[in-house]
Amino acid sequence: MLLEISAFLVLEKLILVAIILGISLFIAMYSTYAERKLAAFIQDRRGPNRAGIFGILQPLADGGKLFFKEEIIPEYANKFLFILGPAIFMITACMTSAVIPWGSTLHIFGKDISLQVADVNIGILYIFGVVSLGVYGIMVGGWASNNKYSLLGTIRAASQIISYELAMGLSLIALLMITGSLSLKDIVEQQSHGVWYIVYQPIGFLIFLVCAFAECNRTPFDLAECDSELVMGFHTEYSSMKLGFYLFAEYINMFISSAVMVTLYFGGYNFPGMHSLHVSPNTLTILGVIAFFVKIFIFLFFFIWVRWTVPRFRYDQLMKLGWKMLIPLAILNLLITGALMLYLHH
After folding, report:
1. What SS3 class is residue 103?
2. Please, which residues have CB within 8 angstroms of residue 281's CB and are 6 or more apart in sequence?
3. Cβ(24)–Cβ(255) under 8 Å?
4. Tens of pLDDT along 121-176?
5. DSSP string spanning 65-86?
6. How many domains does the chain have?
7. What is the pLDDT of residues 73-90, one digit of tens each?
8. What residue numbers bound the domain in which 161 lies?
């Protein structure tokens, strides 16, 4: 009997992993389409319009092109590490989604199926751990290319991510003081009947948002792949699907960052008036999943919109913002949160 339950649980989790991975890849693929269309709209152009109606098949054409292009490995590159770099970057990008609660519980075949791969009690620490491993994908790939532009991009990426992870961590500590839990499921459940945590932590959210842009190497923080100075930065020497992995992982990171921000600050799969609806539990769960993805798409739109409207920072400005502004602001937010909690507690 126990063996049967564990086998069902493994099968359930494998199916859930496959669905989440498929959705992540699909959204990453069509984020490229949305980016090009939105950029075209802002710049008064048409954007992709040849492959399919309104260019809807363009991401498939791009993926096919990358998949079938000739594989080029530079003569003096470290071949093993050159291949390992994009693999690490892609794997770590996909791993972060394991602890995100995508919805409540579905009741199917007389069993409760949780829409979360792993409800670990250190969910936020897991995300931080995996994200910090992702930088090795950039560092290994950039160094192994044996190219000065790649190496400069690698150094920039490493120092940028180290700098902004500190501010991001400090902004989260203030939130964790309120929630009292590192489990993402707990944090979402705490927001189901009360106010979303954006109300309690507006400064913390703002710091987290800015750091998310820096962690994803998105404009105005895309100094690691600064086209005007470093050709393409750390992936200058990459071609074919290895380049595709680097580009794809960036969009997956955008998607997961949006999901984490929605989970922590905007109620996750909760939505206003959900407890007053007279529908079945399964219907409510599905509505919650839809609400969750709507919030994520709003953030993805914001990521893309900022890229095509805000100019890139200089590298000294990037470091100054991280160390001299965001970290002191995060510490101040931490102190204010602690003082308010102490005052309200007494």
Report:
1. coil
2. 104, 105, 107
3. yes
4. 888 889 888 888 888 888 888 888 888 888 887 888 888 888 888 899 999 999 99
5. HHHHSPP---TTS-HHHHHHHH
6. 1
7. 777 878 888 888 888 888
8. 2-345
